[in-house]
Give the backbone structure.
Amino acid sequence: MHIPDNYLSPATCAVMGAAMVPVWIFSVKKVKGEIEKANLPLLGIGAAFSFLIMMFNIPVPGGTTAHAVGGTLIAVLLGPWAACISVSVALLIQALLFGDGGILAFGANCFNMAFVIPFFGYFIYKFIAGRVKSAKGELVGLGIASYFAINVAALCAAIEFGLQPLIARGSDGAPLYCPYPLSVSIPAMTIPHLLVAGFVEIFFTVGVFAFIRKVSPGIIVKEQKPKIKAVFGLIAGLICLSPLGLLASGGAWGEWGLDEIKDVVTGSKALGFVPAGMAKGFSFKAVFADYSVSGLPEWVGYVVSALAGAAVLVIIFRLLALLKKGKPTRAWQQ
């Protein structure tokens, strides 16, 4: 679901980025006003969870891959505004360090994964949880919310892809950016998420939530103090297991490189060309592109990338906690 650069027109990127600016501004104000200094590092832990969960690629129908996001999980644990910040920072680190998602497309990716998923998932969860007063009902509501949230986000990404042939064409009539219309992009994105990725999102969301509820209920029950060490153990486990994300062959739909897109087969026919806007578009080389480290085996590079990304995210929010005025106090106040 990470849209690379040059798949969306500059105008689309500008609109999506502009749409996210007020969301980020308000999210920062909410976090600054409602989150105690002692609990700001929890946002880093949430960002690390999202970052690591997105590294577990899975095969989906059509020969491509997809991944969970964890946005609903973070929204339920920390609140949707905090989740928006956490996932946005995770996406920024992915784009800058690992080349996963575009720089110009950052606003679009944040809209889909840091806005749609946390808020849509959170409000579905609250709707169900308010009517089913039991621990089991809470998990069922969380699973339903996470499933629908990631599928709505996939639909949004599909629409963004599919609009490009309508709004950006060259003088010869050929699409300049993503060449696939809505009739192709919507089923290509939504069917794999409805059939596979949505259930993986349920697995991660419900599984991690149940684990946290057992080992560190203070993150959920706001009157108690969170036990962070136990949560770091789960993060360490995800880092060690991250090479499982390499087992899925092929790339995600809509994330092909310039050397691949002309050979992509749709409806038994290869595209056969590289859209001009993509060929002449923005180029950015990440330091650890594709979560690899020069000179190391692929799986080792993947683990190193997982460790580095998670560590950077935790450190960023710890530093922000140091800069925030006030004394460390009680547990999280949502």
